[in-house]
Queue: 2 jobs
Job 1
Amino acid sequence: MSATETLRKDHQEIKRVEKIVIKCYQSLYDGKDVPLSDIEKITFLISEFLDSIHYSREEDSYFPCVAAYDSLKEEIRALLIEHEFSRNIARMLSTNLSAWKNGEDKREPVARFLKTYSIYLQDHLSKEEEFFTKAEEQILSKEEEDEMYQQFQSVIAIVEKLSDMVKLIDYLEDQNWYKY
Ligand SMILES: [Fe+2]
Ligand SMILES: [Fe+2]
């Protein structure tokens, strides 16, 4: 495994989250019930898996390593702006979800921010995968790929947290509102 492969593997799990997000907003728009506790689990995945784990790997290790070659700087800048955009959507989603839990009817904004988040994900992941291919083929050395990979694996707390995140994705995929 290399650093790039690790990030691609994260993306495979994130695509499962994307499908859950899509199913969730569609169900909400259709007037079906989705337990608020499950929507909370989705927001938890967004903040803990996407933001804390995956974006950190990109922002703190992978992007700086590529940028050190003075290459793909515009691409990196655009990807970082998109991360910020997604954090704003996630914040709006959480705020509205809290209000909903406190009794206000926030079905529509929650559905809308979930939808916006899924559109962001689709666009961002595909752009980033093109970026990974360029970085892998043209920029990063085999040693850097290995070193970053080792670095990702060495943070045991993160590796364990990631496996909890995958369990949470399994759980959500197993819920009736998702399956039917
Ligand atoms: Fe990203
Ligand atoms: Fe990514």
Note: Residues 107-139 form the longest helix (33 residues).
Job 2
Amino acid sequence: MTNLLNDKVKANLKDKLLLLVHHHADVDAISSAVALNSVLENSTICASDGISSHGQKIASVANCEIMEKPPRKWDGTVIALDSPNPEHCGPLPDTNNIVVIDHHTRMGKWPEGTEIIHLPQKTSTAEIVFEIIEELELKLTNEYATILMCGIYTDTGQFRHANGETFNIASELCNTGADPQDVINILDSERPLIQKTTFLKAAQRMKWMQEGKWIIANSVVNSFESGSARLMIVLGADIALVASENKKGEMRLSTRASNRIVSKGFNLTTILEEITEINGGSSGGHPGAAGYNGKGDSEAITEMAKQKCILAIKQLT
Ligand SMILES: [Mn+2]
């Protein structure tokens, strides 16, 4: 049994609790909050700046109320979840006790006296919450064990970034009653119809070509560009370029690259920076996932990006 809680935190947990999650709360944050809420009677969940669509799914499965605006003053303890610094979950209510439970690499600056449970080796906050519930010898129901598993599942990218400890806790959660099939049912079901039809249109309009051993695919949609690009990589493309434009002449290009080509040195941010040099606008992202926003003909700009990708492929060793 791990020892995460000192006497002060144990006493704090008996207070009236405000479970504060980060802005645009994700599945890890919401599942951590609803699981704690299920075992700690005197607690309220607060998401001060919106909840992601999957986070909302968890909240609706748990059927619990979530406060939208933190009170100015909290007479009890504020528990900040999955939020490495106060700006990510604020505004913080005026309170005497704050406990932070988080797993991000870097911990920010919290008010003096804040109790910090920071375990960066954990792949999700849900895992820390599970250990805390065990340490308090409280009982999670099957349903909430499944919900915590949802937090682990999403924060590890469906266990792709899991470590040995992740699987130990996932296994303990199963022993507690979590059902891995329900995790899939909760998270992978019910994409909105508009998203499904858009993805299918992206596939229908897709063009692809081969350059050496690499495949470049492109398409055009009205929305959900990045999801469409991601799915084209799943289909087998090494580079996916998906554009959209609106009536005002603004366009967006969302791009993805396979891990395999990125590991050879291919970098989408360089490609899109070159587009901004020619066409203005702005770009940003990572080597394997980047976006461009600008003005102009989306087809022409996609073609430009494609040509730059071909040149970059020729320079790969
Ligand atoms: Mn997290």
Note: Residues 28, 82, 103, 124-125, 155 surround manganese (II) ion (CB under 6 Å).
